[in-house]
TrEMBL record, chains A, B:
GO cellular component terms given for this protein: periplasmic space
PTM: Binds 2 heme groups per subunit.
Keyword hit for Coiled coil: no
Domain Cytochrome c: 53-184, 207-324
Binding site for heme c 1: C75, C78, H79, H95
Stated name of the protein: Cytochrome C peroxidase
Length: 347, 347
């Protein structure tokens, strides 16, 4: 026992010294692998100029349960800004207490993803925002009913007018989605320890985290998980080397195949963004793995063909915890008051 | 037609002049009837010293869906601070998409009520807070499971320690309730137009609102609806003079009788507080009346034995709209991160 302890201590000592000495090299390697910090400031999005009025309106809509047929479920129900921008459930609860088919992805930093949803079926956040509002197992509403609801409240009518000035018909389902996108653009988490380190602060990562970053790069994780979001940029078969069990990869959910109907897209999913991963258990589209170390190990086996040791998985997980950034601080919105014309809750 | 219009105009003109002339008298009458403004500052509550740490903890707990068995329902789900402190539903959606037996009362200004719930079965807010957490049709949790959940998250353990310093066992179900009470003490809405008027600003109420206040006092509404909250102070039979229909007063809900088992308490309820009533439709414990004018008319018939004219009901309703105060502005809390020890969602 004493010998083992000594060896572990020596191993950590060696790792520590190596990491400290090699910060510059590790930083170069990270940059070469395409790892980037979360930028400050608002990311421009296509066909949707960002204004204060639009962002403010989007904040209201994001929290407004009256976008759902029941009047009970808002965007924030499943993309809870208090818990990492998701709901900490395997799959979300929706209309009628149904559960959805896939784990709710975080809304945080979603603007940096190349496309939205696990299968990338929405090109951007404004297209994404229309999905759950209409999904029968989520908010179960219709575009027509949403527009009636919004038009029934004078404060919304006025705010849509100011957010979309000069438009003939500002209160529309499309503009609802644009306003929500504008708010979501603000939901970014800069200044994570990794970002501070990448920008030159050697002390922002622990030695173990630096060792984890080294493993993350050397084992090939960054081949799929890179860019600002450490993922979210492209699509890969889940089980590239070895298909995981049916609990993790249920055979009935064929991923991107359902979007493209292309055989090579069977069980293909967008590489999960790893920002704030420590806040967003459970993991994978099936949401069955609660433990970050275990999720890392599954990735090693399934995607890299590598049986990571427990120590390696734990060290990589410790690095991933350095991707938790400053969470957005949001004022809870005061919502417009209903009128006699507002549709009643449909349970 | 022209004659009618003229008469209406004359009637309004007379009302207007009378109201302006009689502000001082109306103010005296209001004060004599026990109407009071919402005070600024924190209302002390029994056995629960208010500290910044406790209020801050309570804010987190109020918004934390992990107090429910499902991990989906928080206090704010039914007492939504964005929509007047309630949920704008006849009766609330709870665990398993069940609906509760009574309309969700607003949490705003609840600290000024003599007791909590429609039947007053909780003496104060800290007792109230324990109810929905355990109710099978609401959050469906147990005190034991809540304590396990809270203890599983180091940030909660630390915050309970700071909110309840010197206690041997700070993370308890009782202290959860005390922290929520402390936060709810902050949820008051001062400076409503009526309050401004009562404190001397003649222009804060419109002439119609002053006429409505006059009717409110002359017809006897203030006999039950007085104090800071315009209600919430005592218990009265619903249908004192004439029992409303079964849609409004379902025969199976005997109100305070279920608490006291005293025959004279059949269909007795706490007088509903009228603060922010314009934000909290639908009305009554059964939540079947969406229109404020109609609710006023029902009260006239059921409680006063008076068939109010449409004009009278509308004028009183217009006065009641002056009871909407400044809504609390709350920062949406960042909640503690879960650990492997956190109980999983129980759907």
């Amino acid at each position: 026992m004493r010998m083992t302890t000594l060896l572990v201590a020596l191993w950590f000592g060696a790792t520590s010294l190596a990491a400290v000495a090699d910060d510059a090299a590790l930083r170069d390697q990270s940059t070469s692998a395409g790892l980037k910090p979360v930028p400050y400031g608002l990311q421009p999005v296509s066909d949707n100029p960002l204004t204060r009025e639009k962002i403010e309106l989007g904040r209201m809509l994001f929290f407004d349960p009256r976008l759902s047929a029941s009047g009970f479920i808002s965007c924030n129900s499943c993309h809870n800004l208090g818990t990492g921008g998701d709901d900490n459930m395997p799959t979300s609860v929706g209309h009628g207490w149904q559960t959805g088919p896939r784990n709710s992805p975080t809304v945080l930093n979603a603007v940096f993803n190349a496309a939205q949803f696990w299968d990338g079926r929405a090109a951007d956040l404004k297209e994404q925002a229309k999905g759950p509002v209409q999904a029968g197992v989520e908010m179960a509403n219709t575009p027509e009913a949403v527009v009636v609801t919004l038009n029934s409240m004078p404060e919304y009518v006025e705010r849509f007018g100011r957010a979309f000035p000069g438009e003939d018909d500002p209160v529309s389902f499309d503009n609802m989605a644009k306003a929500i996108e504008a708010f979501e653009v603000t939901l970014v988490t800069p200044n994570a320890p990794f970002d501070q380190w990448l920008e030159g602060n050697d002390g922002a990562l622990s030695d173990k985290q630096k060792a984890g970053l080294g493993l993350f790069l050397d084992k090939g994780c960054a081949a799929c998980h890179s860019g600002i979001n450490f993922g979210g940029q492209d699509y890969y078969p889940f089980g590239l080397i070895k298909r995981p069990g049916a609990d993790i990869l249920p055979p009935e959910d064929k991923g991107r195949f359902q979007v493209t109907e292309t055989a090579s897209d069977e069980y293909v999913f967008r590489a999960a963004p790893l920002r704030n991963i420590a806040l967003t258990a459970p993991y994978f589209h099936s949401g069955q793995i609660w433990d970050l170390e275990q999720a890392v190990a599954v990735m090693g086996t399934a995607q890299l063909g590598t049986e990571l040791t427990d120590e390696e998985a734990a060290t990589i997980a410790e690095f991933l915890r350095s991707l938790t950034g400053e969470q957005p601080v949001v004022e809870y919105p005061l919502l417009p008051v209903e009128t006699a014309a507002t549709p009643k809750p449909q349970l």
